[in-house]
Design a protein that fits this description.
Two copies of one chain form a homodimer. By secondary structure, the first copy, chain A, is mostly helical. Chain A has two domains: 1-74, Multidrug-efflux Transporter Regulator, Chain: A, Domain 2, CATH 1.10.1660; 77-140. Chain A is built from six helices and two strands. A two-stranded antiparallel ribbon of chain A has the order 1-2. In chain A, a hairpin with a 5-residue loop joins β1 (31-32) and β2. The longest helix of chain A is centred in the C-terminal third of the chain and has 34 residues, at 78-111. The first copy, chain A, binds a DNA duplex (30 and 30 nucleotides) through residues 3-5, 14-17, 19-20, 33, 35-38, 55, 60-62. Chains A, B: It is found in: Cytoplasm. Chains A, B: InterPro entries: CueR, DNA-bd_dom_put_sf, MerR-type_HTH_dom, MerR_fam, Tscrpt_reg_MerR_DNA-bd. Chains A, B: This is Cu(I)-responsive transcriptional regulator. Chains A, B: Keywords: Coiled coil, Cytoplasm, DNA-binding, Transcription, Transcription regulation.
Chain lengths: 140, 140
DNA sequence: TATGGGGCTTCCCATGATGTCAAGGTCAAG
DNA sequence: CTTGACCTTGACATCATGGGAAGCCCCATA
């Protein structure tokens, strides 16, 4: 039986987050000492490590909730787990693609920016709407 | 002069966000009608478009604040702008690398997961700490 | 002119995951 | 008994955005 601080150190999840996970029902309420201190046994610390690892792979807490349930369910099908993982991979890849597109654009713009004392800058021109830059009050 | 809804449609920034940007001082307070309706002129809509574009490139609002100031400063140096952009690119690339590492691990795990009715699943094994899975109460 | 619909106002709450800070109780060692 | 480390809860911050409620305003149409 460990206190929350010990469980935090043993799992890599901060005490703050352990309490938070409990408050949102990701973890069950654990035993308490007479003074109200939380006490964690080996199984609970193991679940914390599970969460920590899942977070490090970017899984959102809601998915981790499902993963934990599957982990505990001896009758689970690996297909269910795999679906969650591949869906997460798709999410990640979508975000990566979006960011790569940003990087591409930004690098292109930065490449054409002198980066000296002069004020002229293709980056600002792009942001300002290069193809429509400061239209002199198009009477609309 | 446009109302907030018109400015939103013209800029791509939601009315909700326009108000928010004003409240955090990203945008100056604009003119109001007698009834309290905000009114936007062409310059202000232009600034909104600027923000919209910058957000689409992933710039955080604090950086956009600086970019707006530079945009308005005729005595700016393009070097300053370029620094902001390249720093942002570095941020993006760091996040991309992190996510790519997640994807790599997840794909590897998923590849070895049967994805059928059986419960055995390398993904869960990894999360559970494959190399240390359920240590029978290591008396610590 | 009355009424309705749509737009505007402000304010509060929620998201997702985490952190910081504060005020107070507790425990163990000295 | 004091001190310091640890625990408790709760509020607030981050970052950018959305949703919704309550209420006022404006215009068009019947």
């Amino acid at each position: 039986m460990r206190t929350i601080g010990e469980a935090a150190r043993a799992s890599g999840v901060s005490a703050k987050m352990i309490r938070h996970y409990e408050s949102i029902g990701l973890l069950p309420k654990v035993q308490r000492t007479g003074a109200g201190y939380r006490l964690y046994d080996e199984n609970e610390v193991h679940a914390l490590r599970f969460i920590h690892r899942a977070r490090s792979l970017g899984f959102p807490l809601e998915t981790i909730r499902q993963l934990l349930a599957l982990w505990r369910d001896r009758r689970r099908s690996s297909a269910t787990v795999k679906k969650l993982a591949t869906a997460h991979v798709a999410d990640l890849e979508a975000k990566i693609a979006e960011m790569q597109s940003m990087v591409k654009t930004l690098k292109h713009l930065a490449h054409h920016c002198h980066g000296d004392d002069r004020p002229d800058c293709p980056i600002l021109e792009d942001l300002a709407g290069s193809d429509e830059a400061v239209p002199r009050q198009r009477s609309a």
